Amino acid sequence: MGFASRVGETLVARGLGLAVGVASSIVTARWLGAEGRGILATLAAVTGLVLQIGNLGLHSSNVYFIAREPGRAGAVLANALGTSLVMGVAGGAICLGVFQGWPAILGAIPRPLLLVTCAVLPFQFLILFFQNALLGLGRVRAFNVFELVHRGAIFLLLAIYLIGASGGAAGAVVLFGAGATVFGIVSVLYCARLVGIGRPDRPLLAVMLGYGGRAWVACLLTFLIARVQVFLINAHAGVSATGTYSIALQIADTMLLVPGTIGMILMPRIAAATAGDRAAITARVSRLAALAMTVLCGTAALVAAPGIRLLYGPEFAGAIGPFLWLLPAVWASGLSGILMNHFAGDGLPSIVIGAPLAALALNVLLNVWLVPVLGLTGAALAASASALLMLGLSLASFLRRGGLPLRQALVPAPREVAALLEIRP
Q1: Distance from C-alpha of 412 to C-alpha of 109, rounded to nearest angstrom
Q2: N or C: more exposed end of the chain, with fewer CB within 10 A?
Q3: Which of 273, 280, 266, 272 is nearest to 402 (CA)?
Q4: Higher-confidence residue: 60 or 337?
Q5: Contact 48/227 with Cβ under 8 angstroms?
Q6: Contact 113, 173 (CB under 8 A)
Q7: Closest to 296 in 3D by CA, of 260, 350, 339
Q8: Residue 423's pLDDT band (cuts 50, 70, 90)
């Protein structure tokens, strides 16, 4: 499969997964209400935070080292298995200790649901590590199938439970945990059938951690930029406000599907390209992505109000304003994500840490200042300001390293637009 084919197939699969995710958010919003939705959003943020902190960059290292040294794939998977168990148990224990010491962070969320969330963390790590290993093995189609089947099966069971059995938030949390357990185990078994799982290799693990460490810091900072708001809103305004903002945030995340997919496929291509070609390859991708994101964000601004009211109901009309203020963050995050994948394939220069670190600092400061004054709108403004800062820093570094003018990275040529639209003279 070529680059375009891999991107196209992955976009289709992720698009279907996206549709399932939107349907799931609609079902949970309508059948659980803002409070139930807030519980799910907060616990999902807990899971995501532990995964981001505990992955140590190995999800990126798995792809890189398996692709470069297929003969050591078994050792890579053995290291991934051991790390999943250790970091899952440690992450759960730390979470329980933190929330025991500062219970106000979770607010009204029942503690048994936190226990369930923490108990399945090892299986969440298995999903992250072993499904990403499929990309290194060249099994892009298997990667897409796993993700789609996982999402589809959970949504089907969730819909049956909430709509058919009139279930509540507690049962939904248990259902999500059971799904993670099953698919974590299946992911391990499938990879073991493909290449086997060897013995842990400590020297290899040290090398993988050296490569993944910088990627880990960059990914963690980028994750925190978006998700730190969930905890701040929950602490300041409660779970109902968190549930409302989670709708705006989920739609914004959904719009990043296209640039996220392109970046995921772009990284190994940049790593394989010659140093002289890397900037030109990414510049062409980024300027076409800039055009696509401009059209996407403009369209979203027009349909946001009627779309949110229709899909989520009047209870979540408060998400419309924050979502509109999040659109600059969507545009900027899409482009900076592509640039970050370029840097990952180009040796991970220091900008992969510097840009998100500056953006996170600005994000926290603005949230602390604006959320008490402007509420959810303040959170959205903080997100957009920090995303634009991260893009500006990343873009400046990319242009400097590649010796390119700004126009070449952001403005497509007429012939490229024509080719994109398949216009023939």
Answers
A1: 48
A2: C
A3: 280
A4: 337
A5: yes
A6: yes
A7: 260
A8: very low
pLDDT tens digits, residue range 238-264? 778 888 898 898 889 888 888 988 888
Burial class (CB in 10 A: 0-12, 13-18, 19+), 298: exposed
pTM attached to this predicted model: 0.71
Q: Give me the pLDDT at residue 421, please.
A: 61
In DSSP notation, 86-151 reads HHHHHHHHHHHHHHHH-GGGTTT--HHHHHHHHHTHHHHHHHHHHHHHHHHTT-HHHHHHHHHHHH
Contact at 8 Å (CB) between 394 and 414? no
C-alpha to C-alpha distance for 369 and 365, rounded to whole angstroms = 6
425 pLDDT band, cuts 50/70/90, is: very low
Mean pLDDT of 120-137: 91
Let me know: does 291 contact 417? Beta carbons within 8 Å. yes
